[in-house]
Structures are given as C-alpha cells and as structure tokens.
Amino acid sequence: MDVSETASISTGIAQRYASAVFDIAKEGKQIKAIEADLDALQGAMSDSDDFRNLIQSPIYTRAEQGDAVAALAKKMKISSTMANTLALMASKRRLFVLPQLIKTLREAIAEDKGEVTAEVTSAKALTKAQSDKLAKTLKASTGKTVTLQTSVDESLIGGLIVKVGSKMIDTSIRAKLNSLQNVMKEVG
C-alpha cells in the first residue's frame, strides 16, 4: 500500500463522516454550532501536541481515546452532534481522519452557503487592500463569495499562487524562473 492509497482511504472515511454530520446539522439547523466546533477543534489541533498525539497515535486504546474525547468535548463545549461523532470515531479507531473531516466539513458548509475558499500563498503578507481586491476579483470569476486562506512562502520571490477548488494559478517569480530555466535547457 503506497502513501497515496492511504491518503485516499483517509479522505473517503472523512467524507462519509462529514456528509453524515453535515446532513444532521442541516436538518437540525445547527450549522453555526458545527462551524464553532470546527474552529475549536482546529485550534486544539494547532495548539496542543497532546491532542494531535491522541488522534494520531495507535498506542491509545479505544476506551482511552473515547474518554479523552468525551472530556475534551465537554470542556470545549462542543455540540452534541460533533461530540457524538468524535465518540463514534474514537470507538471505531478513526480519530486520525479528524483533520480531513474538518476540511471536508468546512468545504460542505461553504458550498451550502455559496462560498468558496481560495488558498493564497504569497512571497510577503498581503495587505488588507490587496486581500480585498483579490477576493473581489476571485468573486467576479467564480460567481461565489470567496474566503481567502493566506500563507507566506518567501521562496516564491514575488507574485502569488492561488488555488480555488481544483484550479491553480501560479504567478510567482519562482515559477517563471523555473519555466525560463526549462526553456534554456531545451535551447542549449
């Protein structure tokens, strides 16, 4: 089994859980609560090595993961829908797909709202004016409200890499230099 096969399995598992959670939340008009839960869980994964170890390490038993997730859900005031989902995932040893679940659920909620997320990588942090102008331009091309998820990669030298869904636009100087280098190799 190669890495891409493992990633595909994880994505499939996450999509099934995300679909179920989304349907339950939409039916119960709990989308806002689920969004807050996703923010809390994302923050916990970013801030806590212990939480990341809990969801990724095979050394914890189902019971230990279940007890820990129940305690965390109570302390973080996670909605009952998400708490029950986490408990089910722990009992099935599926907590390792939590990062993909969060991403997939965010995409489903955004799609339902008519929004799309654009991943933007730039050489320097974008100013508020630049972000607003980029969001406006992307909204005009996609026809949906665009939320920017920005990151900085100084190796780009300049320009941007924008990913919206399956489309990617790379206007970075690094990409242009690589392209020029390839053309020079063909000539010489």
UniProtKB/TrEMBL annotation:
Subcellular location: Cell membrane; Membrane
Entries under InterPro entries matching the protein: ATP_synth_OSCP/delta_N_sf, ATPase_OSCP/d_CS, ATPase_OSCP/dsu
Annotated Gene3D superfamilies: N-terminal domain of the delta subunit of the F1F0-ATP synthase
Pfam families: OSCP
Protein name: ATP synthase subunit delta
Encoding gene, per UniProt annotation: atpH
Main location as per UniProt: membrane
Family per record: Belongs to the ATPase delta chain family.
Keywords: ATP synthesis, Cell membrane, CF(1), Hydrogen ion transport, Ion transport, Membrane, Transport
